[in-house]
Recover the amino acids of this structure.
């Protein structure tokens, strides 16, 4: 990763409104952003596009956050990508730690906090 | 009364009949002895009579032969008679005097007196002899010369010259009397002869004989003169006398053998006295022995009495105890029993058996297999085998089984059994108590049922709690998502606006997002409330008679108009189908099913609704040709927040509450919702079934029309 190249963020979120606003927000903050409504579609993106940070919702249809994480870790390509968990689940932070997430953002969330978490994750990934 | 006196009394009482019998026997024997003696005396009398008869017969025949010697067949004249008579007299010295009596009664010739000096023409013997032409014997007369009794034999005699006279002879009876007396066996007896006129001419009393005392009027004399023979005991001249009498047939006389009864019966009386004496001695002996032994007997008796009394008291005590025991046994609210260890045949069963099982106790005792026969068929083999095994092992045991009561009811019995061994150590008897434990069993069963119910309830509650936790977890997530979306979108709008980077297009887009998300949030809240109401049983249905067909028709038409999707074909809704239902909820179900059908069908094409009535149910079938359902999906879609995977993959929005709510609503109406599909991509069919009103259709229609 070069300093002038934008940080790539993959957002996996099934809630339309959140997916849209996070994409708009992160894009505005200078990230290169792609998004998908479930884990399976996220894995499909990983085949052709390599993110620096993954924003991961836990409860999603088809393939949820946990299943996606397991698939990610088993695949050599994205195994070390830092993850920011974005969830409304009650035990979100616990699950986040389990998954080795850099940060866990609980819905509803503060926009700056969210951006900061993603930036931290990007730096952590770069280090 | 002392024991000794009692014993003696008993002896006396016991001996009295024996004594009476012995005396009676003696008495009878004495009577027989007297009769025998009387018969002996009668024999003497008969013998004397025969001797007398021979005497008479002999004398008559001699006289007749003399008479024939004297008969004048040879023509001798009458003057020669005395000479010839003298020759006869000389030849017969024992004869006192012969007389030839002429037809006129004068004596033609006599051995003792001169001829023609005595006339015997008036004498009965003379007259009889002439009259009958037969020899006769006279009554006794006193001889003129001797002064002693004699008798006259007379026989007819043809006299010379054709005259008819008689030959008579006087014979003294002394010789006869002497001969008869010698023949008497006993010296005490007297022999008496009575002539045909009743004169006593033979008698020990000389004076009496000389006087020829008439004896007519005495019973024995009268009887013998009638020709009877016999014996009689009677008072004779102041003396109790035994008289035997017998007639002398050819003379008309009677022989009497007289003896004082005391002398005649002396041997009998001696024997009787001896007998009585012996008897008295015997009785005395028995009495003495009784007296001696009665003492010992009395002591033995006392001891026996004491023992008997003790035994009686013991028996009475035992009886009282037994009664108490029986009362106790029968009072026990259980069946107390005793049975054969081998056959299980009851020997005894307490009264309470009749109350507990209702069979009379005699059936328990009379039917050899009563026990096994009245065990519940499901318990019989086990119970009998267990009891038999324990009995063989000699182990007391207790077990429970069901018995069939007389009324057919089932009674649980706890049978506590004790094995009783015989002296050889072999199990011989079983004693036991059967306790009616039906109530306890029922209570146990009830407790077990309650426990199971409680466990099930707890599990359901836990399940419900888990479900609710899960539901809350999902619900909170589902609620946070739109809330977070709305909040974030609003903040983003504000941020861009502050920076002046918010374009009008973006503003509209964000506003739309907020509106849509809010609407979804509102609906989610509604659904969550419904779920909460349904799960908490707080859903209230406002039931009414609803024409389901009309309701389906209207709802589907309304929805088509609002959504702008292609119109949905409804069939079978022309006839009214009345059901008791909450019209708003039924509308909600139909709407949900129709919306789903359109939502999961590409372009909303090919959806159709069929209303039908099948077996008391009205069915609303919603057919689509959409994405269909897998086996898994068919199960998932009715769970809270459950969605078919293909629906999510197709990115068709939905929270997975609608079908769950619909099914619960249908169930609240007593109906159901089922889904079917040939498989993914092959369309689905959802069928709502509702019961039509249970009442007869015409009434419902009328009732419905009346509303």
């Amino acid at each position: 990763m070069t300093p002038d190249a934008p940080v790539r963020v993959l957002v996996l979120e099934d809630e339309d409104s959140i997916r849209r606003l996070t994409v708009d927000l992160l894009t505005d903050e200078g990230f290169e952003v792609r998004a998908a409504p479930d884990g399976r579609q996220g894995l499909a993106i990983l085949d052709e596009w390599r993110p620096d940070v993954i924003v991961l919702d836990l409860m999603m249809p088809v393939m949820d956050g946990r299943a996606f994480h397991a698939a990610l870790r088993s695949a050599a390509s994205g195994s070390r990508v830092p993850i920011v968990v974005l969830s409304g689940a009650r035990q979100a932070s616990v699950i986040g730690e389990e998954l080795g997430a850099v940060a866990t953002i609980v819905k509803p969330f503060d926009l700056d906090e969210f951006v900061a978490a993603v930036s931290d994750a990007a730096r952590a990934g770069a280090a | 009364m002392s024991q000794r006196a009692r014993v003696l009394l008993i002896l006396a009482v016991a001996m009295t009949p024996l004594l009476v019998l012995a005396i009676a026997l003696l008495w009878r024997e004495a009577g027989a002895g007297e009769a025998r003696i009387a018969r002996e005396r009668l024999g003497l009398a008969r013998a004397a009579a025969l001797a007398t008869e021979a005497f008479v017969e002999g004398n008559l025949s001699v006289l007749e032969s003399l008479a024939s010697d004297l008969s004048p067949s040879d023509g001798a004249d009458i003057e020669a008679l005395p000479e010839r008579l003298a020759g006869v007299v000389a030849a017969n010295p024992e004869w006192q005097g012969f007389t030839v009596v002429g037809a006129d009664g004068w004596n033609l010739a006599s051995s003792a007196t001169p001829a023609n000096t005595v006339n015997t023409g008036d004498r009965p013997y003379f007259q009889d002899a002439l009259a009958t032409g037969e020899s006769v014997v006279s009554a006794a007369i006193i001889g003129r010369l001797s002064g002693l009794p004699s008798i006259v034999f007379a026989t007819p005699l043809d006299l010379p010259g054709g005259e008819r006279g008689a030959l008579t002879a006087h014979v003294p009876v002394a010789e006869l009397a002497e001969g008869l007396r010698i023949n008497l066996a006993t010296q005490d007896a007297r022999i008496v002869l009575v002539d045909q006129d009743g004169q006593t001419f033979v008698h020990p009393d000389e004076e009496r004989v000389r006087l020829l005392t008439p004896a007519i009027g005495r019973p024995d004399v009268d009887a013998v003169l009638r020709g009877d023979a016999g014996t009689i005991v009677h008072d004779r001249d102041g003396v109790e006398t035994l008289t035997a009498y017998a007639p002398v047939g050819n003379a008309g006389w009677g022989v009497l053998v007289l003896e004082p009864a005391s002398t005649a019966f002396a041997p009998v009386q001696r024997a009787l006295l001896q007998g009585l004496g012996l008897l008295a001695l015997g009785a005395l002996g028995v009495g003495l022995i009784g007296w001696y032994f009665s003492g010992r007997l009395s002591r033995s008796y006392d001891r026996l009495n004491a023992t008997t009394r003790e035994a009686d008291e013991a028996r009475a005590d035992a009886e009282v105890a037994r009664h108490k025991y029986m009362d106790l046994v029968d009072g026990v609210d259980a069946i107390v029993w005793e049975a054969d260890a081998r056959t299980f045949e009851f020997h005894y069963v307490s009264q309470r058996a009749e109350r507990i099982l209702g069979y009379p106790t005699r059936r328990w005792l009379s039917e050899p297999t009563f026990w096994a026969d009245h065990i519940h068929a499901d318990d019989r083999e086990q119970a009998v085998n267990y009891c038999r095994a324990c009995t063989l092992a000699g182990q007391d045991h207790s077990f429970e089984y069901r018995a069939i009561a007389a009324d057919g009811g089932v009674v649980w019995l706890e049978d506590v059994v004790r094995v009783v061994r015989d002296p050889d150590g072999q199990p011989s008897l079983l004693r036991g108590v059967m306790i009616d434990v039906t109530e306890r069993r029922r209570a146990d069963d009830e407790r077990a049922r309650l426990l199971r119910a409680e466990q099930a309830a707890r599990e359901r509650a836990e399940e419900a709690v888990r479900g609710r936790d899960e539901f809350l977890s999902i619900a909170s997530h589902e609620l946070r998502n739109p809330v977070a979306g709305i909040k974030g979108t609003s903040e983003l709008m504000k941020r861009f606006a502050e920076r002046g980077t918010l374009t009008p297009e973006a503003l509209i887009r964000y506003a739309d997002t907020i509106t849509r998300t809010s609407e979804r949030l509102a609906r989610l809240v509604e659904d969550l409330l419904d779920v909460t109401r349904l799960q908490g049983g707080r859903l209230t249905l406002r039931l009414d008679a609803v024409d389901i067909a009309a309701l389906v028709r209207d709802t589907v038409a309304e929805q088509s108009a609002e959504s702008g999707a292609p119109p949905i074909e409804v069939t079978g809704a022309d006839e009214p189908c009345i059901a008791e239902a909450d019209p708003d909820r039924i509308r909600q179900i139909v709407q949900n099913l129709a919306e789903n059908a359109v939502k999961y069908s590409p372009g909303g094409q090919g959806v159709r609704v069929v209303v039908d009535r099948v077996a008391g149910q009205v069915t609303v079938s919603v057919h689509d040709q959409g994405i269909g359902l897998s086996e898994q999906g068919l199960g998932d879609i009715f769970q809270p927040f459950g969605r078919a995977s293909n629906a999510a993959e197709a990115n068709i929005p939905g929270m997975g509450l609608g079908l769950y709510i619909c099914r619960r609503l249908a169930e609240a109406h007593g109906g159901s919702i089922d889904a079917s599909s040939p498989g993914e991509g092959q369309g689905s069919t959802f069928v709502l079934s509702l019961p039509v009103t249970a009442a007869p259709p015409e009434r419902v229609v009328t009732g419905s029309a009346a509303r």
Remarks:
- Chain B has a mean pLDDT of 83.
- Chain B has 20 helices and 23 strands.
